[in-house]
Amino acid sequence: MISKNKLFALLFITSVIANSQKSEVSKIQGKLSGQWRTYYMNTFNKGSLKDFQALATGGNIKYQLLVNEKLEIAAALYNSTDLGLQDLTIPDETTGRVSRYEEGLFNRMDIKNDAIFLLGELYLKYKIPKHNITIGRIKINTPLINPQDGRMIPTFVQGIWYEYHATNKSGFQVGLVNEIAPRSTGRFYGVGESIGTYPVGRSATGLPNEFAGNTNSDYVILLNGNLQLTEKLYLSLANYYVDNISNTIYLKPEFDLTAKVNLEFEWLHQNRIGDGGNKVDSLRYFSSSSSDILGVKLGYRFNKAKISLGYDRILPHGQFISPREWGREDLFSFQKRERSEGSADNHALVFYYDNDFSFSKNVQIHSIVSVGRQWKPSVLDPVRNKYAVPDYTQINLDFFIKFAKLKNLRPEVLITSKMANGNFPNNPNFYFNKTNMVHIDVILNYIF
Fold this sequence. Notes:
The protein has one domain (4-447): Porin (Beta Barrel), CATH 2.40.160. The protein contains two helices and 19 strands. It has helices at residues 4-20, 191-194; strands at 29-44, 52-66, 71-82, 115-128, 131-138, 156-165, 171-181, 189-190, 220-228, 233-242, 246-256, 261-272, 290-302, 305-314, 346-358, 363-375, 392-403, 409-420, 437-447. A hairpin with a 4-residue loop joins β9 (220-228) and β10. Residues 1-25 have low confidence and may be disordered.
């Protein structure tokens, strides 16, 4: 939570900067922007298991000081306030567990606190043609570390971030991160400290993991790039070196077979680095020596629509491990409200249908429909199924609404249904907040 001194300093600086703009002779320019967001979330679990709902409001306010064409100083304050729709500290009576999704609207580390205030962005940026360098607290968007803006407050990082833009389709970014503020928390953490603020799953023994608070890592070095190799061939790449934990390489070549058809492949490879987070086996975060994911995706565009079919295979020799705290996994098989992280020997197939249509001249809807099937290892196998998720089928309906006369208002509705497949023990812990459930989000965004 932001301290009173920091908040006072931020308000004082903003006031001084705003007053300075009154002088017409000044070359310094200021820009005030922000977002107001109200977020309703509801999960309906199977049978007599507890349902959860929550309502939050808040958003962010950002001030950018453009000192000249090259130098920018900015700060953004983020807030989420619980409107008290349900007491999320009261668990389900059968499993003893609380909500999985709804608590993420607030501070997961202090769910009783009804308001978060976080100085999520505070940076200095220097820009010259084709080059940007930013120092401070920022948002970055990479395949595994990203804002994952599906809650009230996104993920932020603190460090140094360099960007090179060769062309519109080619460029790269390099960064050094020493602190991370995971989505749905109220402060910045050290890199190792940030791991474990989300559910920890099971260790190889089947007992709860103990890496939270015991993971030693001081920094992350990132490389992220996009290259246009030929007129029809592109390559995306990323590398994450996480001190004392792991190194992850991600490659994604993309081919435009025709003007309407494209084919993509992906390969993600991980190796354990150092102690994997801790030299004691029972406290270690990254236990496997390595892991690999192979994927393929075929896409087709027609009129205003796009369809795709993606497949991912996590090979049997090691769990795919990436801190859920740091962002969503931008894989071909990704669907909102579920992850592949924590699995080995996993198959996933996902179909997407993306389209724009109009109800009238004043109302346009961008819709994304996805249907996914996950073939998981046994829920009784903690080595290959860290979170004990059974085989499941998932259907997502996601709608983004635009109003011609209310351009700043951008509502979104997400409906998710997950159904368990196959045979597994009749234990509610294997499907509570995981499968045989329906989840609904209604979000009102107002951008200014």
